[in-house]
Amino acid sequence: MGSGMISGGMTIMGLASWLGLLVLALAAAALVKYLFTKR
């Protein structure tokens, strides 16, 4: 799952950044869906 990209002791940092991006994407999708269902 991309273990070559995240090498050395940057595994936690890479995981945190990936989790942050995932949360941001989910929040954006939820906001868009909410706005579209509201009107």
Which descriptors apply to this entry?
39 residues, mainly alpha, 1 helix, rod-shaped
Descriptive notes:
With 39 residues, this protein is mostly helical. The chain has one domain. It contains one helix and no strands. The longest helix has 28 residues. The protein starts with 10 loop residues before the first helix and ends with a helix.
What's a quick, concise take on this entry?
The protein is mostly helical and 39 residues long. It has one helix at residues 11-38.
Beta-strand proportion? under 5%
Write down the overall mean pLDDT: 81
Outline, from the CA principal axes?
Answer: rod-shaped
Largest sheet, if any? none
Low-pLDDT regions: none
Rounded to the nearest angstrom, the distance between the terminal CA atoms is 39 Å
Please write out the topology.
Layout: H1 11-38
